[in-house]
Amino acid sequence: MEIFLFIVAHWYLSLFAQSFFHHRYSAHQMFTMPKWVEKFFFVFSFVAQGSSYMSPKVYGALHRLHHIHADKEEDPHSPKFSSNFVKLMVKTYHKFAGIQSGEIKVDDAISQNLPDWKWFDKMAGSLIVKILWGLFYVYFYYLFATEWWMYLFIPAHIVMGPIHGTVVNWFAHKIGYTNYKVEDTSKNLMPFDIFMLGEGYHNNHHAQGNKANFARKWYEIDPIYPIIRLMDFVGLIKLNPVAISKG
Ligand SMILES: [Zn+2]
Ligand SMILES: [Zn+2]
How far is the CA of 157 from the centre of ligand 2 (A)? Predict the structure, then answer.
């Protein structure tokens, strides 16, 4: 039971961090937040993503490139240019690392207003910290696993962030339905997106990239959107008017 809860908690907390902080805040600036709230979400992302912590700054730049060049050769991760999802994952990793190290240059216009906390990103993304997280996952399983096969889930914890990225970047550009005719291959993965916290409505998102609510039809529910509205209501964040405007 503990293992099951650990997998579910890690899946959803890591996904929430990526969708709320990295995607909707950093890359798309759907809302602003005071510096202390931003710092809180840096730390939250570190705890939630663990060994697969991603710099919100690098993620933001990479993701903006995806929207600008969707499914073209310059797209950092288009299924059109990778023969399977493992290759897409590896290619994305190299693009991410290249931007992080400065080997891949990104235009100033692309990296405008990205959240930046240099020493924290360096610490959280360092190899030694990743190894410590890995040891923590193994220790947790050592304490609570009741069957040998449960240990097979440990690799999923280690690459939790990239798994979520691949579900969207590969599968939501391959499988699903569309609400909008767009220039790229983006799809909505499923009508009830309980597994991807709204990120599955990728065709809706590609069609209207600045809208905070990823759901469009009456049966589509984006579970993160009400949380964003609540945080805006209590004053922790400030929604950009464009992100909630109709049309
Ligand atoms: Zn996409
Ligand atoms: Zn996006």
Answer: 24
pLDDT in tens, 45-65: 999 999 999 999 999 999 999
User: Is 190 inside any structural domain?
Assistant: no
Token pair of 15, please? 């996904």
The total of other beta-carbon atoms located within 10 Å of residue 82's CB is 17
For the chain, what is the domain count?
A: 1
The range of the structural domain enclosing residue 94 comes to 2-180
Ligand 1 geometric centre to CA of 140 (Å): 34
Q: What is the tens place of the pLDDT at every residue in 144-154? A: 999 999 999 99
Distance 19 CA to ligand 2 centre (A): 9
The verdict on residue 208 lying in a domain is no
Residue 177 pairs in a beta bridge with 188
Residue ranges with strand state E in the chain: 31-32, 238-239
Ligand number nearest to the C-alpha of 211: 2
> Do the domain assignments include residue 206?
no
Look at residue 187 and tell me if it is in a domain.
Answer: no
